[in-house]
Specification:
By secondary structure, the chain is α+β, with helices and mostly antiparallel strands. The protein is built from 6 helices and 12 strands.
């Protein structure tokens, strides 16, 4: 039996119980709905029972040694795949495997009529540090209509991009916010927001958020239905002035095209690169 693996699982489950206790208390302090608190209490009870099962040895057969998988690299067999031979889903999955993991952002906008919109986006990148510019690709829906996020940014020129911690209640919110809604309805529901006058709200659960202004729009070539926009970063909302604390926090991440998880955990391997001035 792999004792190290068992100990890692126990440590993880115990941390989950601690996090659940803290989350339940926060939700009670904020006066959140009883059914949401009850879900967390059920999660805590289930996780606590799982800890006891592992501690008693009931699941020891789960920790038997398994055959090591060979390392994957291009030093051996190389297969060249033609993206044009794939259907949309296959092409998305293969390209996604090459550019993930990447942080998932919740992009907050407001329509000209004051309707708050929030939507998950992962096609976001830094295109310039001086000046501070963010690039983002926004596609159309299956009916060929531009998404509310893009329409709102075009109308108001403003968007707030939030990076979030890897919490299951946030994931459930993201799943619900990704579903199409009429443009006169908001995906925010009962979620708590940080309000900053003149800017779209940021989720209170954000690790960090960027307040941005639209400065450029570009159609993508070759018949792509998406549009590339460039946003200037005008403000950064952070819970601390200590950048190292932010850099070490786990963030909600697109691990594959359809799978969320976390990276940048405190015990992950890391190496700080030396950069020339």
């Amino acid at each position: 039996m792999n004792e190290d693996a068992k100990e890692h699982v126990l440590r993880f489950l115990r941390r989950c119980v601690i996090y659940a206790d803290e989350s339940i208390q926060r939700k009670k302090d904020r006066g959140e709905q009883e059914d949401i608190i009850a879900q967390w209490e059920a999660y805590r009870e289930f996780t606590t029972y799982a800890v006891s099962e592992v501690e008693r040895g009931d699941l020891n057969d789960w920790f038997e040694a398994t055959e090591m998988m060979p390392n994957l690299d291009l030093s051996g067999d190389v297969h060249r795949l033609d993206p044009d031979s794939f259907d949309h889903h296959e092409r998305t999955s293969w390209i996604g495997a090459a550019v993930t993991p990447r942080p998932l952002h919740l992009v907050s906008t407001v329509s000209k009529d004051g309707i708050r919109n929030i939507a998950p986006m992962s096609s976001i990148s830094v295109v310039s540090n001086s000046p501070p510019l963010i690039g983002m690709s926004l596609s159309k829906d299956r009916e060929g209509r531009s998404r509310d996020t893009l329409l709102n940014i075009i109308e108001t020129k403003k968007a707030t991009l939030a990076v979030l911690p890897p919490h299951i209640d946030i994931v459930r919110w993201i799943e619900s916010s990704a579903k199409p809604l009429p443009s006169n309805q908001s995906e925010w529901k009962e979620h708590v927001a940080v309000t900053n006058e003149g800017w779209p709200d940021a989720p209170a659960t954000s690790l960090i958020a960027l307040q941005t202004t639209l400065v450029a729009r570009h159609p993508l070539p070759e018949g792509a239905v998406a549009e590339w926009i460039v946003l200037r970063v005008d403000g950064i909302l952070s819970p601390t002035l200590n950048l190292e604390l932010i850099e070490k926090e786990a963030v909600l991440t697109m691990l594959t095209d359809d799978e969320l998880g976390e990276v940048r955990t405190s015990n992950a391997w890391r190496h700080k690169m030396k950069k020339s001035d």
